[in-house]
Amino acid sequence: MSTTKYIFVTGGVSSSLxxxxxxxxxxxxxxxxxxxxxxxxLDPYINVDPGTLNPYEHGECxxxxxxxxxxxxxxxxxxxxxxxxxxxxxxxxxxxYQSVIDKERRGxxxxxxxxxxxxxxxxxxxxxxxxxxxxxxxxxxxxxxxxVGDIESLPYIEAVRQLRWExxxxxxxxxxxxxxxxxxxxxxxxTKPTQHSVKTLMESGIKADILVCRTEHDLSDDLRTKLALFxxxxxxAVIQSIDASTIYDVPNMMLKEGLDxxxxxxxxxxxxxxxxxxxxxxxxxxxxxxxGEVTIGLIGKYVELQDSYKSILEAFIHAGAENEVxxxxxxxxxxxxxxxxLEDILKRMDGILVAPGFGERGIxxxxxxxxxxxxxxxPFLGICLGMQMAVIEYSRNVxxxxxxxxxxxxxxxxxxxxxxxxxxxxxxxxxGTMRLGAWNCAVTENTIAHKVYxxxxxxxxxxxxxxxxNAYRYQLEEAGMKATGINPDTQLVEIVxxxxxxxxxxxxxxxxxxxxxxxxxxxxxxxxxxxHDYAAKK
Length: 538
Known about the structure:
By secondary structure, this protein is α/β, with parallel strands linked by helices. Helices cover 37% and strands 22% of the residues. It has 18 helices and 23 strands. Strands 13-12-14-15-23-22-21-18-19 form a 9-stranded mixed sheet, with helices on both faces. It has a 7-stranded parallel sheet with strand order 5-2-6-1-7-10-11, sandwiched between helices. α5 packs across α6 (154-167), α12 (310-323) packs across α18 (522-537) and α13 (334-346) runs parallel beside α14. It is globular, with a radius of gyration of 25 Å. It starts with a strand and ends with a helix.
């Protein structure tokens, strides 16, 4: 008999209803009661991972400690739970089929015809239970991507049906998230889309145990009764999820609705413990009652889609709460800066962050933004490509190397101050081949970085192919741009600073991936403080 309990979160009616936030909020409530909880995401797309997807397609690609390129929902899981996820927490159709085909090629199916049922569904079930079988977790929450009824989701839904039968009613339950739309002409909420969605789920052999209803208006008692009756759930299991001003309100909203209580009851757990959300609510209190305000320009290439920089935006929320200031992040397209709007846009900013990215488009705008921050003593943070742009800008405008560039954008440059790593030069496959996951960094004492971290050895997550070219390090250091963080194994530069500037830091890694509600990232906290100090003097 399984000792781990499994919760499956499915979605209906519409995509983008917030399954990830509901899953993370429930997990937070269960964790706050003392349970060991983790969340995994099953993505129905055929890509092996989102690493090769354009941010416009899928939003940010989130990277775990063990170097997995994953769905951005894993970022929510880590930010809410303050627990690391791994390769096992994100499974895609591409990965499932790749594994099954590899087994077939090795002859593991003993000559049988390989089919969706049972071979693909068995593989899915194995992946779902992989985390539960470690003995590390009391409860595993599995979010099924997509919407019930999608062709792509059918094998996952069938795997859930089988697994639920195998595990038994006390060890598995299904939460179905749907939309209850409001028709302004009729001035009423409509339940029919939810009824149809639940019916579609039942046609696949799955009965929803709990119904979470996304809505813009409060569900009346009559509506809850109607939904319970027609969707075959208990009335107490009809949970309202009304639009919130911040995602960090959702755990408290779900607590008020009794989602955790109903869940535990359905799983046969008798627990009257009140969740301990003291630390969470202290964060919320600071976030909602700032004592000051700052404006930071986020210079990027994918600013039209906010999810492209999701972890950065959330890290600013955490750091803002820690400093008791509201951080207004203004997305600025680097191509707009190239088109001559530099002064008009940037002079309104209290701080400038040049964001990560790939490719040549919008690069010159990023370089101009770095120059503006450097020459006007505006607090600056460059992340990954942003750090590389800082090195290029300094090489061009201080060292006088006018054609300094990265070989990513200009393969024939005479001064490749950013160059392809040696280990990357013979790689032809694009997926999963970058420098990924956690790497150590030795921090120089008496620097901003050392003051920020308070340690001489740190670990941060990476996602890149191109690096600071050490052939130029002596020249750059002599000219005033110091390398203050070095990878002890490869000797590659991880952090650069300009000591003569009030606050100028570029990092090759992605600090935003490690910022959580419980542990705001110190680099973002220090940057926001520097921005606040600068704004106070303006």
